[in-house]
Amino acid sequence: MAASTILSGSVSLPSGEAPVVNATAPEHAVSPSGTKVFFAGILLNRSDLQKQFSLADCHDNASLLAQLFAKFGTDAFAHLSGPFVAAIQHDGQFLLVRDLHGQQPLYWSLHNHSLHFSQSLPELKAFADGIDLQALSDYLALGYIPAPRTIYRNIYKVNGAHAVTFRPGAQPQAAPWWSPTFSPKITLSFQDAVAETQRLLEQSMKRCLTVDGNAGVLLSGGIDSNLMLGLATKLTDTPRQAFTIGFGHTGYDERSLAELAAKNANAEHFTRLALPDDVQILASLQTASGEPFADSSLVATALAMRLAAEHRSTVITGDGGDELFGGYRRYQVMAARGKLGNALTHLCATLARGGLALLPNAPEQRTTLSNARRLANALALPPVPCYASFQELFSHDAIAELAPELSKQPHYLERWQELWDSCESEDPVERVNRIDLLEYLPDDGCRKDQLAETGTSLLALAPILDTDVTRFALSLPRTFRVHLRERKRMLRAVAAPMIPEELLHQVKRGFGMPVAAWLRKELASEMRALAADLKSWDRQGWFQPEVLTRLVNEHLDAKADHGHQLWALYCLRLWLQN
């Protein structure tokens, strides 16, 4: 994001006095009542809202939000759809607001009776009070830092679908204006639900194409992005352009699958091969992030964005399909646990522990052996740790061995357990789906796209993350989304007439990167330096040198796959050095 296009500013909050605001934003409006709205992003449903609530004609998002806020107060936010952040001064208080799924970032810090906020974390670094060790522990475990924490003490994120209210002389109050709920359920038949899902997706796609009728599509070999290409083609006569990143490793390369979809949609297809040397862009991405971020698909996504930016100013992505429509295999594991019952689950856990002891280490991801080990490990654990094991990089025990001081921090599983326990649904799939929607989607999935746009003027839009689509998806019976035999049932049914049949039954790859292979071969020197130069980048002495050296050697010798753990440490090193 260019500095001129972001929301940022400061607010003086002396006790007993009205806030004094000094802010800049791409859009600014003042309502007749004196409410000030500073806005960055896009309201994709702006014209629909004007009609629905008989609002005065306006040609910018800030003016519309000012009218809605005057009418509904903080309830206005639940009506908004699109990637946005806003700051609102009203009645002696100041609010910071972030969109439904956290598609746009927003950070804040209090210092000397003043609030400082920005969409750029590096802009607020001057107000940091050192490294937040709990955030660093979360990063090692997950590869990202969940809101509201950042890597720094005294700098915070606004959570997705939250508003943080600041009043002179009072503590900030963060409150959700939306939270994932799975009831009441719709009473439609499966086919009627398919028809309604398609209608809502077409409505959302039309909203996105209103922003840019020539938008391209980031295309993988999966259902979500191919459905987006199919919908865009179906709704307009404009020839589409599609953009795909490939790899020299068959387990990760989707170029041939994407080519099938592009030909089927009569789209002009641009492809680029990602090479180990492309990892060089990672340093600038970590700097732009302002904190370490270790999703390995960031590199491929950034390459795809840069490829698209050579031809288009807007791209459509398939983000949100897995979280809203049940696309992850880990949801099927939780569905199976729900079917087994307590007695069989305990028996299964015992058998899994025995099987895990017999299985050799897997030197590479996305193999039968690695999948078997991951499944056995998951089934040997209680529900929340079971689910976490599919995403976790360093376990608590691994962190205790590598970084003993960090293991003393509160563990993220405690927070996840609270989210599990507080869910109104008894369905284990919906309980973990709620965790993904509150943490993984905004702080990893959406954050990855934000960072991937770095260095381009590209706008990325995600039709599946539309507010109406979101609410409808979560109201579906869970088996309409995912069950033991099939994931993403609803999207598959909608996509079936639009995309080649071969793509409906492909293994999910996404823009994942062959991390283990690259680190073991082309980037082996970087891994050796990671351990050999530890003192130069870990100046705080967090990590045990002998443990890191062992992890590097075991990986390089193909005795174990520590690829994603070493990648997280590599990203941390790049961030610390920059």
Short account of what is shown:
This protein is an alpha+beta fold.
Structure report:
The chain has 578 residues and is of the alpha+beta class. Among the domains are: 3-176, Aminohydrolase, N-terminal nucleophile (Ntn) domain (Glutamine Phosphoribosylpyrophosphate, subunit 1, domain 1); 190-326 and 434-505, 3-Layer(aba) Sandwich (Rossmann fold), CATH 3.40.50. It is 44% helix and 13% strand. It has 23 helices and 16 strands. The protein has helices at 46-52, 61-72, 133-142, 190-211, 223-235, 255-264, 282-289, 297-309, 321-325, 329-358, 368-379, 383-388, 396-402, 412-421, 428-452, 467-475, 478-481, 489-495, 515-520, 524-532, 534-537, 545-556, 563-577; strands at residues 8-12, 20-24, 27-30, 36-41, 84-90, 93-98, 107-111, 114-118, 156-157, 162-166, 173-176, 216-218, 241-246, 268-273, 314-316, 459-461. The protein has a six-stranded antiparallel sheet. Strand 1 and strand 2 (20-24) form a beta hairpin. Helix 5 (223-235) runs parallel beside helix 18 (489-495) and helix 14 (412-421) crosses helix 15 (428-452). The chain is globular. The two termini are 19 Å apart.
